[in-house]
Design goal:
The structure is a single chain. The protein is mainly beta. The protein has one domain: TolB, C-terminal domain (Neuraminidase), CATH 2.120.10. Helices cover about 5% and strands about 40% of the residues. It contains 1 helix and 29 strands. Strands 17-18-19-20-24-23-22-21 form an 8-stranded mixed beta sheet, with no helix packed on it. It is globular. The chain starts with a strand and ends with a strand.
């Protein structure tokens, strides 16, 4: 157990669990631009009734020999993508501390790997299926945009801090990026229609220590924060970042995203009585200025629980264009530990049902920090 101190009450430490401390420490590593190990191998398995997947990925043994691929040019050496990747309907992008590995969402076949990142923590997608990946070095960061199945970035957005998450507005295509879950540099930057120069928004009193943001279907932006585990909002065309009332306690904050019907708020440490730590997703809607929870999805895994900072809900269309509630949620599960026999870095659950996983993809070692699914329009 660890003790942390609230900024407005320096003499009153509050305990957080070892699991929550690990989440903070991972973000602290990102803020210091510490590199995490890249994937070194891949195994696929099933347990507890989950589907067993199979994959032969020569890329994880050093090169994509025997399969047509395109390589990335100077500056992002080592990246590759199979030639038909852009034609695959659904691709899942999974970030570790250095690379972003790309898989066919349906078959789990690895179809690419994007290299040259440092702490690619956050991900988001736009209506077209372009994928936005955050990266940072020291106090500087950027967001790289890739076309669906593409191996070269098509645009770069430079940020004023360590970006940890992003979201695309369905209302107007704005790109929101928040920088840092720690300290005075925590802010949100908005690129209008994902172009030009960004506008920055801060509220250090109510909205500091921000986690990955999410837009709703109207273009309002919501962010969970470390400030007393609260929620903040930036209205569409708004001029200020403000706290908004949330009718549930958040055990430990995580990401926000649109699930096609409701806002989905992550709780990395569900406060209910569970055998192991359990991540949860609260489905909520804004009513008369209050975020009201209409349902809770517990992401369970019987052997050791779940620890997922940025679960991604897969809809019929890409997130900003999706208006049908998603049926699957995927996430990198950190709860079992790097060397556990139950390590399940990339896991699939039914959504919004509660229950055990139905698929596993096992990159090895553990270390997935973010993921997204891009759907071919």
């Amino acid at each position: 157990m660890f003790n942390f101190w609230r900024s407005r009450s320096p003499k009153a430490p509050f305990p957080i669990s070892n699991k929550a401390a690990r989440s903070w420490l991972r973000l602290a590593e990102a803020a210091l631009a510490a590199s995490l190990p890249a994937f070194t191998g891949m195994a696929l398995a099933g347990c507890n009734g989950a589907e067993t997947l199979s994959s032969e990925s020569p890329a994880l043994r050093g090169s994509p020999s025997g399969e047509a691929f395109t390589s990335l040019g100077a500056g992002r050496a080592g990246s590759w993508m199979v030639r038909d990747a852009a034609n695959i309907k659904e691709l899942i992008y999974a970030s570790d501390g250095a690379d972003v590995n790309v898989y066919d969402y349906s078959t789990a076949r690895q179809v690419g790997s994007l290299s040259g990142f440092n702490n690619p923590y956050g991900q988001c997608v736009d209506k077209r299926g372009d994928v936005f990946l955050t990266t940072s070095i020291g106090s500087e960061g950027s967001v790289l945009e890739y076309a669906h199945g593409g191996s070269n970035p098509i645009k770069t957005f430079n940020t004023d801090g360590n970006p940890i998450g992003c979201s695309i507005s369905p209302a107007n295509g704005d790109l929101a990026v928040d920088n840092g879950a720690f300290g005075v540099t925590s802010d949100v930057q908005i690129w209008r229609r994902a172009s030009g120069e960004p506008v920055s928004y801060t509220n250090q009193h109510d909205c500091n220590a921000m986690w990955p943001p999410g837009y709703d279907d109207r273009g309002d932006l919501f962010i969970e924060t470390g400030n007393y585990h609260s929620v903040c909002e930036l209205r569409v065309n708004g001029t200020s970042l403000v706290a908004v009332e949330f009718d549930h306690d958040i055990g430990f904050p995580g990401s926000v995203m649109w699930d096609g019907r409701y806002l989905a708020f992550t709780d990395q440490e569900y406060p209910g009585k569970t055998h192991n730590y359990t991540a949860a997703i609260y489905r909520a809607k804004l009513e008369r200025g209050v975020l009201e929870v209409v349902g809770t999805t517990l992401l369970r895994y019987k052997p050791c629980g779940t620890e997922i900072a940025q679960p991604f809900i897969v809809g019929e269309k890409n997130t900003p264009a999706n208006n049908v509630e998603g049926k699957v949620v995927v996430g990198g599960n950190q709860a079992c530990g790097e060397f556990s026999e139950y390590t399940t870095p990339l896991t699939y659950w039914r959504y919004p049902k509660r229950g055990q996983p139905f698929k596993f993809v096992h990159p090895h070692p553990d270390g997935i920090t973010g993921q997204s699914v891009s759907i071919l329009p």
